[in-house]
Design a protein that fits this description.
71 residues; alpha+beta; 3-stranded antiparallel beta sheet; 3 helices; 3 strands; 44% helix; globular
């Protein structure tokens, strides 16, 4: 998208299969977000949305270098 266009994200219900995949791929050992996106095969924006939801729910911890882990 250009600077003035909004990126359209799928409805929350469409993210359920992706949530399951992300949850399965995460562990207590940090993984880079880029690697997670590559393994999911989904748009980075959708993976970032799922990660944000998990972080707000207290299920995800962010680490230096763009890495995340399950809490």
């Amino acid at each position: 998208p250009t600077l003035f266009e909004e990126e359209v994200l799928p409805p929350a219900s469409d993210l359920s299969p992706l949530r399951e995949k992300v949850t399965h791929l995460l562990s207590a050992h940090p993984i880079s977000i880029d690697e997670l996106v590559a393994h999911c095969g989904a748009p980075a924006s959708s993976v970032q949305t799922v990660l944000l939801e998990m972080e707000l729910a207290g299920c995800l911890e962010r680490h230096a270098g763009g890495r995340v882990s399950k809490v």
